[in-house]
Structures are given as structure tokens and as C-alpha cells.
Amino acid sequence: MLLFRGVMTSKRSIIIGIFIVSVLGLAFIQYQYLKVGLNLARVQFNQQMLISSKYISEDLATKNDLTFLLGKAITKDDSYFTLSLDSLQDAGSHYLDDFLKERIWGNGLEADFTFQLKTRNNEVLLSSPNHVVYDPDDLILYPVRLEGYLPQVNGAPVTLILEFTDLNSYFLTSLNGLIIPSLLFLLAIIGVVIWVLRSFYWQRKIITTTNDFINNLTHELKTPVFSIGLATKLLEEKFQEETELVTMIRTQNDKLKQHIDAVLELAGMESKKQVLPMQKMNIQEVLLTTAQSFATICTVENVDFQYQIPEEEIFLKGNPLHLSNAVTNLLDNARKYTNESTPKVFLQVAKDQKSLSIEVRDNGIGIPKSLHKQIFKKFYRVSEKDLHSVKGHGLGLSYVYQVVKLHKGKIKVSSEIGKGTSMKISIPLIHG
């Protein structure tokens, strides 16, 4: 068991490692997509700015109310307006700022910017309102060379410098429609995978605990089995003659011991993923012995038990002990839950060219159709009326299901309330 837990811990570490690498890889891919998106946004921004710069240059090339005001402000000519020179320049800055925002923002580029009107010698003629001097490395500049009216008024070339800061934040904001859903989906994937892994290891823990319980229980049962065997031997020596009662005690004690060994073996295979030891066998002999042994019990308990088993040899690849235990389990269930007044149990064995069918029928209380798939789960018991009048732990049918599955077979349930139950096993035969 310690080796099994060590293997599971190693597998868990590998799975967690793969999960972490996958998440990091997915995050890296998303980051690369983000970089591509930012580059595309920058290219689109530059294209839009070229278009906006063209319109700005054309609008400021002719004489109009705005360019006339700007011309007076950059030449510091306050003779036309009844304003001080500072007020004139301040008005020119505000009107030009409103004009530029209309042209740039109206073109879908709602990024914050400032501007400066400069001469060829970098002399600042006019600045945007509340202009802040930034580190040149933090600025992205878009110069617009002005032609026409303003250079003529100034008597020298004039350039409009558009200054943008922190464009990456602007681009990220514009990509929120892609970034936020990507992050949400990534978090959702991580959450679902963590939940699945936790559920998986929680179930593995339950299976480990269950197998520990079965191992402990079966080991504890070996002590009374040994005591019963010893007492039977003493009875045989005392009476000297073997009676039917002593024979039955010895036979059933041997069967109980086989059951315990089988459950231990099956629990070990379930936890260690071992392969069930198989051999070519004549299942007809196994089923006949099982039926005859069960008939003895039914005689004592006044149960009408009938069976039909072909006389010919039937060969398949299987495990005699586990197959016998599985059939015995079905017969015992049929006996326990059969009709109390007229108990009847029937075992029918048949074969065709491909498979062997083993059917166990009773005339008992039946099982609701909605629970037919549930009854093969470990520890599950039908909680209907008086079904729990028979004590048990819900391990029998789970054991049968595992044995049939390991033999590459199928088990089918047919049952109605008050009309009895039929359990039919189908197992492939050996050909040739």
C-alpha cells in the first residue's frame, strides 16, 4: 500500500507539473497575442494619425477665423483685438486645442495629447493649455508641417508638433474587449482543472480508504474462519462419523475462506492495477459445483432452487475462483430477496457461438428501474421499504461487476417491483 501511495504521489506530481507548464504556456501564448495586438493597434494608430494630420494641415493652410487668430498670436500682434498679448495667446491656444481634439478624437483616436507650434529653430510660438514638459523618451511625436497662411504671416516655416504620452495604456484600454475575456477564460480553465484534479484525488483517496477497510475487515474475518475450521475438525474427531451437518459447516467455512481471499485479491488488483490471473478453464464444472453447493443451502432453508446447466464442456479464459464467487453472490442475493412465502431461485446457463450467458432469476421484491445502474456502485444499497431488512455493506454487486468487467463481459439487470429480478452475465468464449 505504501508503494501504491508512492506511485500515486509521483503521478500526482507529474500531472501537477504538466498542468503548471500548460498554464504557463497558455499565458505565454496570450502574452504573444497581446504583443501582436499592440503592434497592430500602433500601426492602425499611425495610419489614422497620417489621415488626421493631412486634414489638420489642409484646414490650417487657408485664412479663416482660427488661422487669423493664431497668426496674431504667433506674431504677437495685439493691434486688432482689444486683448492683452497674454490673453490673445491664451485664446489662440484654447481654440487650436479644441480644433485639434475635434479632428483627432473625431477620427477615433481618443488619446490624450499636447501640442506646440514651433519654428525651424525650435522656437516655441504657441503651446497647448496647461502644457507639461515630459522626458523626450516618454513622448511620441507626430510633426505636422504647416503650409499656406501661417508660414506666410510668420515669415518662416511653422511646424505643429503633436505630443502623445503613455500610448501603451491607451492601446491596452482599446484592447480590453480581447484582454479581459481572455483572462476570464484562462482563469475559468484553471479553476475547472483544479476542481477536476481535486475531485479526482478525492475519489482516489476514498478508493484507497475503502480498500484499506476491506483489507482490514477480511483480515479480521480470517480469525473466526480459522476457529470454525478448528471446531469442525474437533467435531469430526468426536463423532468419528461425518454427518451432513458437519459436512455443510466445513464446506461453507471453506467457501467463506475462499471469499475472503478473493476479496483481498480483488482489492489488491483494484489498488495496484494488477491483471487478474486467467487460465483456460471448463466453466461447466465450476458452475455445476457452485449450483450443487447452493442447492444444499436451499434445502435447509426450504428455498425452491432449480438450475439448468449444459452437460457439455464449456471453455473460456477466466479465473475459476472469482467467477464462482460472482455467481454465488448473485445466487445468495436472489435467496435473500426472494418471495418469503414461496421462495424460488432459478439458475440458467446457456451458450451460443460467441459467448456464455449465466442468468439468475428470483420471484422477490424487485428493484426500481431507475436504480438498475446504481446497484453496482460500491457501498450502494437500495433504500426502498424493507430492502434493508437484509443486512449488508453494498459490496456484493460491486464485486460481481468488477469480476465480469475483468473477464471482458457484461452484466444486465431486468427487474420490476413485486415481480422479481433477473441478473444476466455474458462472457466471451474461447474459439478454436
Automatic annotation (TrEMBL):
A Pfam family annotated for this UniProt entry: HisKA
Transmembrane segments: 12-33, 178-197
Keywords of this entry: Kinase, Membrane, Phosphoprotein, Transferase, Transmembrane, Transmembrane helix
Molecular functions (GO terms): phosphorelay sensor kinase activity
InterPro entries reported in the protein's UniProt record: HATPase_C_sf, HATPase_dom, His_kinase_dom, HisK_dim/P_dom, HisK_dim/P_sf, Sig_transdc_His_kin-like_C
Domain Histidine kinase, residue spans: 216-431
Catalytic function, reaction form: ATP + protein L-histidine = ADP + protein N-phospho-L-histidine
Enzyme class per UniProt: transferase
EC number(s) on file: 2.7.13.3
Protein name: histidine kinase
